[in-house]
C-alpha cells in the first residue's frame, strides 16, 4: 500500500497536464496504491506584474516543486518540459518524458486576422523574446507587448479588455485545454520555431525511488526524449533558458534526428538560423551549437543578456 502524491502548479493547464499523466498511470500502479494531487504555488505564478526575462527567468515555475520532492512531501511532479532549467537538484531525475503534443506556436487574434493580415501597428501580446523576435522578423510594423498570467487571464485581456489584437501561445497548451476552435492560425516552424522542449511533459521524481521509476517507464517516449536531448544540449550551450531569444526543435524519424535552431536579437534582426542532422542526440545538439557560434550567436546573446539584465 502506498499513496503516491503528485505535485502540480495550480493553473488549469498544469492541473490538466497532471491529470493526464495520472490517467496514464492509473492501470500501471499496484491495485492497493492510490494517487493524490498536491497543488503548489510557485514564484512564477506569484510574480505577475513583470516580464519574466526581468525576474531572472530560469526555473521560476519549478523550484518550489523540486523542494517538495526533495522533502518527500510529494513523490512525482509533472512539468512542461520547456519550463525546466538545465540543472536539476542532486537527488532528482526525469522518470519520464511523455510523447510530444503539437510543438508549434499558434496565433489567436481578436478579429480572426492571420499574422499576415493584422493591421499595421496591431498589438501582439507575448512575454517571450523568442516569439517577439520571430514576429518582428516577419512583421516589423507590429507592436509586441508583454502579457502575463495563465491562458484564461491572457484571453480575457485580449477579448474583454482589448489590451491586445493577438496573442501567440503554445498549441500544445491550447489542445490540452480543448480550446482548438479559438486558434486563428497554427504558426509553421518556418515562421515561428518553437521553444526547446515545447509540447512535452517532464515527469520528475527522486532518483532513489525505484518503485516510481519503474512505473514511469510506461509513460516515457524514447523518440520524444531523444529529440529533446538534442534540443537541450543546444540550448544549454548558450546557458540559455526560455527567457532568451533562442528556439530549437528536433524530430527523430527512422533513427535520424533533425534539429533546427535559431538565436535572434529581440528586434528580429539579426536572426541566426541553422540545422543539424545525425543519429546521436547530444552530437546533433553540439553540431548545431558550433554552426550558430560560427555565425556569431555567442556575441549576439551576450549583447541581449546585457540589455535585459542591465
Ligand atoms: N511559458 C509557460 C508555458 N509553459 C508551457 C506552456 C504550454 C505547454 C507546452 O509548451 O508544453 C506554456 C504556455 C505558453 O507558452 O503558451
TrEMBL record:
Its EC number is 2.5.1.61. Binds 1 dipyrromethane group covalently. One of its GO terms (cellular component) is cytoplasm. One of its GO terms (molecular function) is hydroxymethylbilane synthase activity. Its cofactor is dipyrromethane. Residues 227-293 form the Porphobilinogen deaminase C-terminal domain. GO terms for biological process: protoporphyrinogen IX biosynthetic process. The modification S-(dipyrrolylmethanemethyl)cysteine is found at residue 242. It is an enzyme of class 2 (transferase). Residues 4-213 form the Porphobilinogen deaminase N-terminal domain. Keywords: Porphyrin biosynthesis, Transferase. It holds the Pfam family Porphobil_deam. It catalyses: 4 porphobilinogen + H2O = hydroxymethylbilane + 4 NH4(+). Tetrapolymerization of the monopyrrole PBG into the hydroxymethylbilane pre-uroporphyrinogen in several discrete steps. The porphobilinogen subunits are added to the dipyrromethane group. Belongs to the HMBS family. NCBIfam families: hemC (TIGR00212). Monomer. This is Porphobilinogen deaminase. The gene is hemC.
Amino acid at each position: 500500500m502506498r499513496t503516491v502524491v503528485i505535485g502540480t502548479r495550480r493553473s488549469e493547464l498544469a492541473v490538466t497536464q497532471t491529470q493526464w499523466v495520472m490517467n496514464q498511470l492509473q492501470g500501471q500502479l499496484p491495485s492497493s496504491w492510490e494517487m493524490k494531487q498536491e497543488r503548489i504555488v510557485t514564484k512564477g505564478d506569484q510574480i505577475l506584474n513583470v516580464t519574466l526575462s526581468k525576474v531572472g527567468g530560469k526555473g521560476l515555475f519549478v523550484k518550489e516543486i523540486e523542494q517538495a520532492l526533495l522533502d518527500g512531501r510529494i513523490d512525482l511532479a509533472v512539468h512542461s518540459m520547456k519550463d525546466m532549467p538545465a540543472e536539476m537538484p542532486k537527488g532528482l531525475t526525469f522518470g519520464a518524458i511523455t510523447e510530444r503534443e503539437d510543438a508549434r506556436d499558434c496565433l489567436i487574434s481578436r478579429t480572426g486576422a492571420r499574422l499576415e493580415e493584422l493591421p499595421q501597428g496591431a498589438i501582439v501580446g507575448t512575454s517571450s523574446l523568442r516569439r517577439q523576435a520571430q514576429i518582428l522578423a516577419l512583421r516589423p510594423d507590429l507592436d509586441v507587448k508583454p502579457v502575463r498570467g495563465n491562458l484564461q487571464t491572457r484571453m480575457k485581456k485580449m477579448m474583454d479588455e482589448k489590451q491586445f489584437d493577438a496573442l501567440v501561445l503554445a498549441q500544445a497548451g491550447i489542445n490540452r485545454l480543448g480550446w482548438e476552435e479559438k486558434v486563428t492560425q497554427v504558426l509553421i516552424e518556418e515562421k515561428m520555431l518553437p521553444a526547446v522542449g515545447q509540447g512535452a511533459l517532464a515527469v520528475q521524481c527522486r532518483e532513489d525511488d525505484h518503485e516510481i521509476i519503474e512505473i514511469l517507464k510506461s509513460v516515457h517516449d524514447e523518440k520524444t526524449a531523444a529529440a529533446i536531448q538534442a534540443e537541450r544540449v543546444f540550448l544549454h550551450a548558450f546557458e540559455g533558458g526560455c527567457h532568451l531569444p533562442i528556439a530549437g526543435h528536433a524530430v527523430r524519424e527512422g533513427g535520424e534526428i533533425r534539429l533546427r535552431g535559431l538565436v535572434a536579437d529581440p528586434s528580429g534582426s539579426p536572426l541566426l538560423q541553422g540545422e543539424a542532422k545525425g543519429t546521436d542526440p547530444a552530437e546533433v545538439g553540439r553540431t548545431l551549437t558550433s554552426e550558430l557560434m560560427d555565425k556569431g550567436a555567442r556575441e549576439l546573446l551576450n549583447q541581449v543578456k546585457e540589455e535585459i539584465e542591465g
